[in-house]
Recover the amino acids of this structure.
């Protein structure tokens, strides 16, 4: 089972990725270093999921709606969706990838007409002293590139369109 998810919880971005011995959960906030937890699945009973987080067992409820999953613990519910490319989000209007934070374009790795696979690097941004690799969300063709190396981008600014 492919279990790779990301979601936002306020200003925090939470990523869940598989590891050999369970899951790696990383919580990133703009104002501090990321924190990583090791999580193991103890058992799954229908809609109940028992996880061990930092050696403490916790019970969660899980529900599915298409590609979206809902996970609840106590009174908090989280909506989990397949991750957006790191540092970018897909625009619903035209399918282009847009910047989620201000930054500087370090490199553009593709050109219009180029075929790319899911996860292929498209653009490299520098934001908040971090290098962000903007990747293709799925297989497709680069339709347009809206930036070039050296450009400064703002949140919501289009970077690349892949269809």
């Amino acid at each position: 089972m492919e279990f790779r998810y990301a979601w936002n919880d306020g200003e925090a971005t939470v990523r869940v990725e598989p590891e050999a011995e369970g899951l790696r959960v990383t919580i990133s906030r703009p104002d501090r270093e990321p924190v990583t937890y090791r999580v193991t699945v103890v058992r799954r009973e229908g809609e109940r999921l028992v996880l061990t987080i930092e050696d403490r067992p916790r019970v969660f409820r899980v529900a599915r709606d298409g590609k979206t999953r809902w996970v609840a613990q106590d009174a908090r519910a989280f909506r989990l969706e397949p991750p957006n490319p790191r540092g970018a989000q897909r625009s619903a209007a035209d399918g282009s990838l847009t910047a989620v934070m201000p930054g500087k374009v370090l490199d553009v790795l593709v050109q219009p007409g180029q075929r790319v696979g899911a996860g292929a690097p498209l653009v490299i941004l520098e934001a908040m002293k971090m290098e962000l690799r903007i990747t293709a969300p799925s297989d497709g063709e680069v339709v347009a590139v809206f930036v070039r190396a050296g450009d400064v981008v703002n949140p919501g600014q289009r970077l690349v369109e892949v269809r």
